[in-house]
Each structure stands twice: as structure tokens, then as C-alpha cells.
């Protein structure tokens, strides 16, 4: 059996007859890279179960019925009036989707497609609207005192006299956080709204009210038959929502709580991610410049309880290179690869991204030229994968690359090359004479050392001359492979021209 964390969890869960993995996020703001860990963790366990031949289901529940908690910095001031209203009933602050929650869900769901994650998607308000919560709400209201006792003893929080596990949605002002339950009979809950004074009744078979989070979660386990659930460490504290959820699940809903998979946070360049503080990076944006394989590998290569740091810049380049270097013959590496790959995109990941970064800079983004350069290096991509890999490289360069990595091959001899020392020009001449099509990047690299030795010049100076001759700057990508990638004939001609100047 493999040692990969997802395989181990899958194996552990094999004992249960039905495997249903649930994940969920509240779409109250931009869904960021930190939130992504939840779905990717679930997805990898799901795939590990399928690999074991188990029958499994993978769910994603968007908490669209949650209220807007406060006026986030990205919201217009008038949205103050929507605080306390369910997200799916609030208009899109940007005017492009049917609701607030859809605005943030839409790019996230598109990102899931790109990440090769395909859960069954639920919106929490629809589960209520379909009446799926009827029995759970009934039991919660009938067991109000018992639940209050569980919450008080476990979470050490005082539950107020008029507290109810069920919060009716005020039909008058639309808030779900300001009503008080007066009575319950049949399918109806009588309530009074402390915000607007309205009194009315909610049908528990409709989306006219919801269970509080700590009850909603265990109720959902039973309704959707959840047996495995990844969740953030904030829910896993002593007296936290998993702690109380477990007891409520067993004692109120007679349901065995799901196997917990607790994951750590992902920080962004060393800072905790937070949508409200603006320390965030949306998955959708990142996926325009960073291949999904890299994000999958970030999650796949570390156990869920390990804190991760994400940096879309140089670290991402390293991440993709590490992924590229994985040896399929090693059992753990082969599983990491399996969980990082995108179905149907198997070739592009074989082209080192660092190489691709150089290729698109040399070809200036021209696909035909990129194709020729790649083929010279033995990489054959079909049109789609070539276009995608090249787009990622171009966007990454534009959005996240440090200046030191960017270069532009000079179409004609740079003026700065004229003032190179005589012995450096002689060095370029000798390199030019010895370059030939059959040489590998490594051969060329070694040859540059040889030439420097013969002339008694510092090899670092000769490398500098190479870069000045081609890029009009003193540094660049590893010279041997770079010369080969730019094209032997082009380089021969350029070096000869400089030697004769
Ligand atoms: Zn929108
Ligand atoms: Zn009201």
C-alpha cells in the first residue's frame, strides 16, 4: 500500500460501507487559494478511494443560505442594509450575476473544472427549499434543551434563554439573524423579528429559516450520508463545531459522524490569508498564470496537517520543477504525480516549466516558433497542450516573474557588445567556431569552461559576454541549454559578428 497521505486516509475509510466525502465553503467573498485546500484534499481522498475500487461520492456544498456577516471592504456602503440576510437573496454587488453568492461561486466553480475537480454541487438554500431538512429541523426544535446542554457543556458558552437551534427568515426585512422563535407546531414555526417587529410563521419544509451552524453541520451529515469530511483546524478545536457536532450527530440524529480530515492553513508569501484584510489571491486569477498541476502538487505533496506557504512567484517555478522531476518508479512519487495530474493533459507537464519560460521569451510568444524550439529539445506537444502551456508561461512572466528571469533575445547585435574586452571577443569567436547542431546543452556549457581555460579568463566573465551578446544584459538562463534553445546558427552568427567588430 502506498504511503501517500490520501491513500492512507482512503484505506482507513474503506471499512465504512458507503463513502461520501463532503466539502464546503461560504461564498461571502473571493474564494482564495487557502479555501482551495478543502476541495483538493477531498478530491484526492475521493480519487484514492476510486483507485482502491471503492464506490465513492464527492460533494461540494456552497453555504449560500449563510447571512452576510458584515460590511466587507470590497462592498459599497449601502450593503450595510443587507447584513444578516442570506447571501443567495442579496443582489450581486458587481451587478453581473443573479446574486451575491453566485458572483463568488461562479469563478470558483470554473476553477474547479480547471483543477480537474468534479464534485456534485449543492447550494445549501436549495437543500432547505427542497424540504430535505424537515426532519432535522423538527428534531432540533424538539430537542432544543438537550442541544443547548451539549453546546454549553462542550463549548463552555452560555446559551441564552430564548435561544433556538432554528433561525426563521423574517419575511418582512429578510434577515435571518434577528428573529426569535415563539412556538412550533406541525410544519410551522411562529416567530417575532427583533429588527423590524414583524411576527409571522416559517415553513420548515422551505427555505424560510435555517439551523444554526453547529446544528446544521451534523444535520447535513445525516441528510447527505456524509462519511468523510475535510475541514479547517478552526473547526477542530476543543469545544469547536466538530466536537459538538459529533455529539449532536450521535445523540440527536443517531448518525455516526464522518471521519475527520483536519487541514492546516495556506499562507500567502508568509502571511495568513484573509479576504477581509485584502491578503488574498483568488484561485481563478492564479489559474490564469499558474498551471493547475502546480496547485494540485502543492496540496498532494504535503500531509493535510502541514502548514503550507504559497508564493506565485519563484517558488511556484520551483514547485513545478519539483513535480517535473518526480520519478514515477518511486511509489510515493508516482502517487504524488497521480494526484497532481490533470486528466487528459499528460504531455505538457513533461516539458519543464522553466524551459517553457525561456521558450516563450525566445519565440516572443509565437506558437509555431515555440513548437520548433520544443521539438529541437525532444518535446512534442499537441496544439492544445502547446497553447495552454505557452499561455501559462506568458501570463506567469507578466504577472509573477521577478525581473531577473525576464529577457529578450536581441534581434541585432547590441551596442554594449562592441565594448567587450578583446579576449572576451576571442572567447566568443572560439565558442562560435565550435558550436554545432549535435551538441547538447551540457556539452556547450562544458565547452564554454574549456574556452575560458584556454584563454586564461574568468569563466564568469565569459558567461557575461555570452549574455551581453544575446540579451544585452549581464545574466540570463543557464547558458548551455539557452544557446541550444535560441538556435545554434543564430548564436554562431552573432558571436562571429561581435568577434569581428
Ligand atoms: Zn457578478
Ligand atoms: Zn424583520
List the helices and strands and how they pair.
Elements (H helix, E strand, L loop, with lengths): L4 H9 L5 E7 L7 H19 L4 E7 L37 H15 L5 E4 H6 L4 H9 L1 H12 L10 E3 L10 E7 L2 E6 L5 E5 L5 E3 L1 H11 L4 E5 L8 H11 L7 E5 L2 E3 L2 E2 L10 H7 L2 H9 L7 E3 L3 H12 L5 H10 L12 H11 L3 H10 L6 H17 L22 H13 L6 H15 L3 H13 L7 H8 L1 H12 L2
This protein binds zinc ion (ZN) (2 copies).
Main location: cytoplasm
Family: Belongs to the class-I aminoacyl-tRNA synthetase family.
EC number: 6.1.1.6
What's the story with the biggest beta sheet? 3 strands, parallel
Percentage of residues in DSSP E strands? 5-15%
Distance from N terminus to C terminus (CA atoms, Å) equals 65 Å
> Taking Cα atoms only, what radius of gyration do you get, to the nearest Å?
30 Å
Average of the residue pLDDT scores:
94
What is the CATH T-level topology of the domain at 271-404?
Arc Repressor Mutant, subunit A
Spatial arrangement of strands, main beta sheet: 1-2-3
Which structural class is indicated by helix and strand composition? alpha/beta
Helix proportion range? 40-55%
Output the number of helix runs.
20
Molecules bound to protein: zinc ion
CATH class type of the domain at 271-404: Mainly Alpha
